[in-house]
């Protein structure tokens, strides 16, 4: 029994690694078909043909793509992400603080949004089709339907400019006290919470409602359990798999999909870093960030899968 | 009137009258707000700068890919930060002249081929070393090295040899160039210890601020360099900081919220809104930058002079300035020079919008069918709208323009200077010669209109060596007419630089060379108490 779970988990992880390799090929191929080349993009509008030729030679852009791919993959496997073509700095040292910032923002947004979404979902189920359910669903859907830049600008206008409660720009840096950091990210974190809340809340509500149709819930009702106890003891544990799935998807979004929020609030995260380097065709950095994003996505999905398997014994015995 | 205004402005500087009251009085005297503001800042300057505080700018034009190596500078944030920590041989003055900085004296041979820069004594680098002629020579060498990727490589190509002679750096040119000192004001040419050959991105020079924070694409910071050689002229704030804010709305709200004191690139669309915000002053100055529609003179159908003329007459310039620049700019006349340049001839007839003449030339050209114009949001702010306006003004002349919107990503490598008809922009250059040499000589790397005329090339090269100003001015007039009447350039408008500051900032002087006071805003402004 235990060993079969271990095998399952090992299988999932192996699959994930394989997927990651496939993604690395895709990322590499994708960066190759971008129009323009690195040298032109680095030097931009001001490029002279001599400068271009010199830079191309120096960057090794004249080697065939396959050679460059395997050289890069070898580096990544040995923990060397390479140097950025544009700044000549080691990618790992510039990328890690950005990754840390992104995770910091995602973490706090998740800390607020996940429990909130689940509690609101439970409340909505408890008072389903009543005014509380309608209010919760309405609010959550409205906040999701508004584009995040719009919510961001609204918050900036009212909370930052008019009331001046929180700063409108969220620049954080090393050595900033935790409390100032938290104060700086209040607005972007709020926007992110509003964006991901509805998806998770609605999924929680739907999953639990689904379970609530089951015969054993009726039994529980008939034996006189209170509505909350039924949800807590009988419905929620059986609905956990879809909930975890949607939570993980949203966590992944919080890490990889927040470029717009980063730009609006001037937050030094990984998204803006990636966009800057795509614009400059800084292929090694784009590949490294792409790989990190893919790894985050894949590992969060593995966690969701494993949780689902653990929560539902039926999945442990595939027919 | 001016006596009373000056009296009042001194009162403001002395704190006896509020800025708002002053502007009210000025308006009552029939003075425009911008002139009144100029008066005010000169009065403040006279009252003396104040030291202290952290002066912060929120700026567009910074990327995670920026480096402190001056050779790599391209966008606005490295440019402005560079002017804060870097020191140059010379600098441009707001009036268009030159100010000697590390170069104490500049001498030329009679034929303008050999130039001597005497290096000033007692200028200190941030690392404690003294600036020597060898450092200057090494800097110039690094930027003129063929292997270098310096943005200044193009202007260094005219140098034949350089050497150090005592305290002098002697530069010998391949061909005479009366403008050489102006070229040395190029923003890439920051003087570095040993020319930056050892460590190009160390961020060490002899400017008013020492680099303390360098997080490309996020923020840059500096603290006042105690041994700056000209501490009474620059470096008033204790610390400076540039926060990269590429989003226009975020930039404006950061200024409103007081998180930054200065911002660049206020969009013309929202200038009038920003102007109404209490405590915010718009700092606009007409410069040399311009927005262009460029045709390749050697590519069909644009190799036909009549078609080019038709497309020039079909441009409604006033409409462009009003709708695209919201009045923050001036009309162009199809040559890349305006009154901001020295030796400008203001008697060249303005080309009007004339659909009849456009139709006449279009018919004469024998061209049939639509003309394809490529554009993109990145060409200049409002470029797509401008292309559509142009489409309409052309339609009135019976010319059909097909506007093709290209992705911004890759525009500079795939469309500009490759496709025969596109939109683009040019920043100005310090001199007329440099503007023409950069983009209109047959041999120019960025001859983006494919303008090949031998007589034009000869004229520009002759003007370069001409030391008699009157003759030179006449030569540039002829050159302007050649580009205007025969070239592939449609130049509808010169754009203003539009920055903004809060009322905590003083010492602002409009500078036509570039935005943010030619990049010196952080170095030269100060915070009022």
Describe the overall structure.
The complex is a heterodimer of chains A (319) and B (529). By secondary structure, chain A is mainly alpha-helical. Helix content of chain A is 77%, strand content 0%. Chain A has helices at 2-32, 38-43, 49-59, 65-77, 91-126, 131-145, 148-162, 178-184, 186-212, 215-222, 227-256, 259-265, 270-279, 283-311. Chain A is globular and about 85 Å long. Chain B is of the alpha+beta class and 529 residues long. Chain B is built from 19 helices and 19 strands. Chain B has helices at 2-13, 19-28, 33-47, 76-85, 133-144, 153-156, 180-183, 248-256, 268-275, 305-313, 317-323, 355-365, 383-395, 411-414, 432-439, 454-465, 469-486, 515-518, 521-524, and strands at residues 54-59, 90-92, 98-100, 103-108, 114-119, 159-165, 168-173, 209-215, 219-224, 239-244, 262-263, 280-295, 329-331, 371-375, 401-405, 421-426, 489-502, 505-506, 526-527. Chain B is globular and about 70 Å long. Chains A and B meet through α2, α3, α7, α12 and α13 of A and α8 and α14 of B.
Which outline of chain B best applies?
Answer: globular
- Contiguous uncertain segments of 5+ residues of chain A: none
Tell me the strand percentage band of chain A.
Answer: under 5%
Give the low-confidence spans of chain B: none
Give the chain pair forming the largest contact, with residue counts: A-B, 48 and 47 residues
Oligomer: heterodimer
What is the typical, i.e. mean, pLDDT of chain B?
A: 89
Strand content of chain B: 15-25%
Query: How are helices and strands ordered from N to C of chain A?
Result: HHHHHHHHHHHHHH
Total of helices of chain A: 14
Class computed from helices, strands and strand pairing of chain A: mainly alpha
Q: How many E-type strands of chain B?
A: 19
Number of DSSP helical runs of chain B: 19
Q: Secondary structure elements and their pairing?
A:
The complex is a heterodimer of chains A (319) and B (529).
Chain A: H1 2-32, H2 38-43, H3 49-59, H4 65-77, H5 91-126, H6 131-145, H7 148-162, H8 178-184, H9 186-212, H10 215-222, H11 227-256, H12 259-265, H13 270-279, H14 283-311
Helix pairs in contact in A: 1-14, 5-6, 5-9, 5-11, 6-9, 7-9, 7-12, 9-11, 10-11, 11-14, 12-13, 13-14
Chain B: H1 2-13, H2 19-28, H3 33-47, E1 54-59, H4 76-85, E2 90-92, E3 98-100, E4 103-108, E5 114-119, H5 133-144, H6 153-156, E6 159-165, E7 168-173, H7 180-183, E8 209-215, E9 219-224, E10 239-244, H8 248-256, E11 262-263, H9 268-275, E12 280-295, H10 305-313, H11 317-323, E13 329-331, H12 355-365, E14 371-375, H13 383-395, E15 401-405, H14 411-414, E16 421-426, H15 432-439, H16 454-465, H17 469-486, E17 489-502, E18 505-506, H18 515-518, H19 521-524, E19 526-527
Parallel strand pairs in B: 1-10, 1-11, 14-15
Antiparallel strand pairs in B: 2-3, 4-5, 5-7, 6-7, 8-9, 9-10, 11-17, 12-16, 12-17, 13-17, 18-19
């Amino acid at each position: 029994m235990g060993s079969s779970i271990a095998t399952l988990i090992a299988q999932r992880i192996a699959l994930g690694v394989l997927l990651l390799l496939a993604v690395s090929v895709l990322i590499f191929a994708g960066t190759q078909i971008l129009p323009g080349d690195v040298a032109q993009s680095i030097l931009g509008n001001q490029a002279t043909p001599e400068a271009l030729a010199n830079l191309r030679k120096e960057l090794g852009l004249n080697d065939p793509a396959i050679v460059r791919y395997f050289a890069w993959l070898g580096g990544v496997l040995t923990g060397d992400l390479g140097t950025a073509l544009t700044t000549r700095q080691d990618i790992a040292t510039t990328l890690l603080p950005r990754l840390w910032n992104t995770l910091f923002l995602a973490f706090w947004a998740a800390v607020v949004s996940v429990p909130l979404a689940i509690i609101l979902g439970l409340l909505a189920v408890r008072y389903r089709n009543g005014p509380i359910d309608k209010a919760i669903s309405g609010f959550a859907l409205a906040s999701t339907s508004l584009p995040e830049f719009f919510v961001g600008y609204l918050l900036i206008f009212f909370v930052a400019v008019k009331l001046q409660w929180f700063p409108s720009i969220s620049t954080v840096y090393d050595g900033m006290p935790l409390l100032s950091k938290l104060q700086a990210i209040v607005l972007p974190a709020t926007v992110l919470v509003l964006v991901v809340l509805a998806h998770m809340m609605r999924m929680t509500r739907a999953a639990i409602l689904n379970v609530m149709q089951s015969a054993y819930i009726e039994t529980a009702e008939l034996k006189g359990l209170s509505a909350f106890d039924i949800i807590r003891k009988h419905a929620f544990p059986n609905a956990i798999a879809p909930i975890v799935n949607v939570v993980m998807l949203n966590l992944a979004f919080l890490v990889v999909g927040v470029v717009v929020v980063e730009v609006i609030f001037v937050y030094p995260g990984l998204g803006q870093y990636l966009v800057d380097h795509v614009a400059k065709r800084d292929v090694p950095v784009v590949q490294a960030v792409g790989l990190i994003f893919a790894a985050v996505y894949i590992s969060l999905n593995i966690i969701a899968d494993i949780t689902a398997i653990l929560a539902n014994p039926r999945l442990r015995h595939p027919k | 009137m001016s006596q009373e205004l000056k009296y009042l402005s001194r009162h403001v500087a002395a704190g006896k009258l509020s800025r708002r009251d002053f502007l009210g009085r000025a308006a009552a005297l029939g003075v425009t707000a911008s002139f009144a503001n100029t008066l005010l800042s000169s009065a403040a300057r006279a009252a003396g700068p104040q030291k202290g505080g952290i002066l912060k700018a929120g700026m567009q034009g910074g990327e995670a890919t920026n480096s402190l190596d001056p050779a790599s500078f391209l966008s606005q944030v490295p440019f402005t930060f560079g002017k804060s920590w870097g020191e140059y041989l010379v600098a441009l003055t707001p009036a268009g002249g030159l100010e000697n900085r590390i170069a104490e004296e500049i001498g030329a041979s009679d034929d303008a081929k050999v130039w001597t820069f005497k290096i000033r004594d007692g200028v200190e680098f941030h690392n404690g070393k003294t600036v020597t002629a060898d450092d200057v020579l090494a800097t110039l060498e690094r930027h003129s090295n063929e292997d270098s990727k310096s943005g200044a490589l193009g202007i260094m190509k005219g140098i034949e040899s350089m050497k150090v002679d005592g305290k002098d750096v002697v530069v010998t040119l391949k061909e005479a160039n009366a403008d050489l000192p102006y070229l040395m004001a190029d923003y890439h040419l920051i003087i570095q210890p040993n020319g930056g050959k050892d460590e190009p991105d160390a961020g060490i020079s002899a400017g008013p601020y020492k680099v303390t924070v360098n997080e490309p694409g996020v923020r840059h910071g500096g603290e006042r360099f105690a041994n700056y050689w000209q501490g009474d002229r620059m470096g008033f704030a204790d610390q400076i900081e540039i926060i990269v804010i590429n989003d226009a709305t975020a930039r404006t709200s950061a200024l409103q919220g007081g998180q930054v004191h200065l911002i660049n690139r206020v969009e013309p669309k929202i200038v009038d809104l920003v102007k109404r915000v209490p405590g915010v002053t718009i700092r606009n100055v007409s410069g040399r930058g311009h927005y262009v529609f460029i045709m390749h003179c050697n590519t069909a159908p644009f190799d036909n002079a009549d078609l080019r003329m038709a497309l020039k007459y079909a441009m409604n310039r006033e409409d462009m300035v009003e709708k695209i620049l919201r009045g923050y700019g001036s009309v162009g006349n199809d040559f890349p020079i305006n009154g901001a340049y020295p030796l400008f001839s203001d008697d060249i007839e303005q080309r009007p919008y004339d659909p009849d003449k456009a139709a006449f030339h279009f018919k004469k050209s024998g061209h049939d069918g639509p003309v394809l114009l490529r554009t993109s949001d990145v060409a200049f702010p409002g470029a797509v709208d401008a292309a559509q306006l142009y489409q309409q003004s052309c339609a009135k002349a019976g010319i059909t323009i097909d506007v093709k919107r290209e992705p911004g990503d890759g525009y500079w490598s795939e469309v500009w200077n490759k496709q025969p008809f596109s939109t683009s922009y040019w920043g100005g250059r310090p001199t007329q010669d440099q503007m023409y040499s950069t983009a209109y000589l047959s041999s120019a790397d960025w001859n983006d209109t494919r303008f090949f005329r031998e007589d034009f090339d000869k004229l520009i090269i002759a003007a370069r060596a001409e030391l008699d100003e009157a003759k030179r001015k006449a030569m540039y007039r002829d050159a302007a007419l050649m580009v205007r009447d025969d070239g592939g350039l449609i130049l509808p408008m010169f754009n203003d630089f539009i920055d903004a500051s809060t009322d905590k900032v003083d010492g602002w002087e409009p500078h036509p060379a570039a935005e943010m006071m030619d990049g010196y805003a952080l170095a030269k402004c100060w915070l009022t108490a």
